[in-house]
Design brief:
Order of helices and strands of chain B: EEEEEEEEEEE
Order of helices and strands of chain A: EEEEEEEEEEEE
Strand content of chain A: over 45%
Distance between the termini of chain A: 41 Å
Number of strands of chain A: 12
Number of helices of chain B: 0
Distance between the termini of chain B: 36 Å
Largest sheet of chain B: 7 strands, mixed
Shape of chain A: globular
Largest interface: A-B, 28 and 30 residues
Number of strands of chain B: 11
Oligomer: heterodimer
Helix content of chain A: under 10%
Radius of gyration of chain A: 13 Å
Radius of gyration of chain B: 14 Å
Strand content of chain B: over 45%
Chain lengths: 113, 116
């Protein structure tokens, strides 16, 4: 079956530091890949997405590139802010269609001044 | 405003006392789903529905029921809650996806349930 593996958290960074959150997946074919963000006390919001190999999703300074050869979709941001503190979830949607999302365990990011 | 609403947001109950968590969306979405979020496990799908009167089990359906009598509503029912159902619950909705679609799933704000 499909699965998503994320790096363990929490990740603690200073403001303006570079962020990488690793995400790898197991799935047949070409799944769609997503990053969701959950701010404290809120539901999940879609951050960015990609549908095929070498696609780059981007939003709010975050980027992730769909790497088929390494089955990865790592999240990056060049300069984090305190307001980026949240839990980040990598997810995939299977290539066979349907709407089910398979999530990773989430990575908590804390950004300090 | 497009949104998914859940009620209640917080609930403390006792073992065996039936409860319902409501979910409603105003986007005319066909697909609705319930997830539970637990530390170290991420989100796991409980049940989903592809349209009115069409529901199916997700990965962790034991102890839960759902119904889809109207397109906008998808309540989650715990007939006899137990402490292992203490969790954070999210409802989500989207249009019914096609192959390779990246249609966004919209999530509700969550319901934190504690079963004593």
């Amino acid at each position: 079956g499909n699965s998503v593996t994320q790096m363990e958290g929490p990740v603690t960074l200073s403001e303006e530091a570079f962020l990488t959150i690793n995400c790898t997946y197991t799935a047949t074919g070409y799944p769609s890949l997503f990053w969701y963000v959950q701010y404290p006390g809120e539901g999940l919001q879609l951050l960015l997405k990609a549908t095929k190999a070498d696609d780059k999703g981007s939003n709010k300074g975050f980027e992730a590139t769909y790497r088929k050869e390494t089955t990865s979709f790592h999240l990056e941001k060049g300069s984090v802010q305190v307001s980026d503190s949240a839990v980040y979830f990598c997810a995939l949607r299977g290539a066979g269609g349907g709407n089910k999302l398979t999530f990773g365990t989430g990575t908590q990011l804390k950004v300090e001044l | 405003e497009a949104q998914v609403t859940q009620n209640p947001r917080y609930l403390i109950t006792v073992t065996g006392k039936k409860l319902t968590v409501t979910c409603s969306q105003n986007m005319n979405h066909e697909y609705m789903s319930w997830y539970r979020q637990d530390p170290g496990l991420g989100l796991r799908q409980i049940y989903y529905s592809m349209n009115v009167e069409v529901t199916d089990k997700g990965d962790v359906p034991e102890g839960y029921k759902v119904s889809r009598k109207e397109k906008r509503n998808f309540p989650l029912i715990l007939e006899s809650p137990s402490p292992n159902q203490t969790s954070l619950y999210f409802c989500a909705s989207s249009i019914l996806g096609l192959l390779q679609s990246t249609d966004t799933q919209y999530f509700g704000p969550g319901t934190r349930l504690t079963v004593l």
